[in-house]
Design a protein that fits this description.
The protein is an alpha/beta fold. The protein has helices spanning about 30-40, 50-60, 75-85, 105-115, 140-150, 155-160, 190-205; strands at about 1-5, 25, 30, 45-50, 65, 90-95, 120-125, 130, 135, 165-170. A hairpin with a 2-residue loop joins β2 and β3 (about 30). The longest helix is centred in the C-terminal third of the chain and has 17 residues, at about 190-205.
Length: about 210
């Protein structure tokens, strides 16, 4: 079985202090949309955040909410908490600023990871790896812990220390490149743009 983990530890400075996971997308927040998508595939969903009080009012007890062991050290610290505390041996990890995550793509990554017997399967789009839509082996938490101990917080350094397999996922997606499952929103302008693109794409299908 698979655990889904949403990393929601960023401070959202470029969003004017608004938490990216709580931004509205269609008729729900981004994180609610992510949870709904993850539950199509995952037996368990975890939210990793150092601000649980912001999420409890909308999520309640629907998922597990955990915090970083070492807060304030970026995605790698959140991945460490997720992999360490996940119930299942494989974990699909995403960032909370990705409104279009895909259970179809995650299922394919999970399949590749098992077939290749790799420590992770990472999506690649336009030649670029996207670690925050990857499926990871729980046992990789030990490698992350070693890096955190020496104050090395880069996700790519972690990937270079494990056996991962990159998967070109563009052919798996039905939407165009601008609405890829790995698209994220870091600024108000990026957020408004993806909302507009998604609304336009949805309108064209009705």
């Amino acid at each position: 079985m698979l655990t889904g983990a949403i990393l929601a530890g960023g401070q959202s400075r470029r969003m004017g202090g608004r938490h990216k996971g709580l931004l509205p997308f269609v008729n729900e927040s981004i994180v609610e949309r992510q949870i709904r998508t993850m539950k199509q595939l995952c037996a368990e969903v975890i939210l990793v955040t150092n601000d649980p009080r912001s999420f409890l009012p909308i999520l309640g007890s629907s998922i597990r909410i955990i915090t970083d062991y070492i807060p304030g050290k970026g995605p790698l610290s959140g991945m460490h908490a997720a992999l360490t505390l996940a119930t299942h041996s494989d974990i699909w990890v995403v960032g909370c600023d990705m409104p279009l995550i895909s259970s179809v793509v995650a299922e394919q990554l999970w399949k590749v990871k098992r077939e290749r017997r790799s420590a992770a399967a990472i999506p690649s789009a336009a030649g670029k790896l996207h670690p925050l839509h990857g499926v990871y082996d729980k046992r990789s938490a030990g490698e992350i812990e070693k890096l955190l101990d020496i104050k090395e917080y880069r996700v790519m350094t972690f990937l270079n220390r494990i056996c991962y397999y990159g998967v070109d996922t563009q052919q798996l997606e039905q939407s165009d490149e601008q609405l890829s499952c790995v698209t994220n929103v870091n600024t108000p302008e990026e957020y408004e743009r993806i909302v507009s693109l998604y609304d336009a794409a949805s309108a064209s299908q009705t």
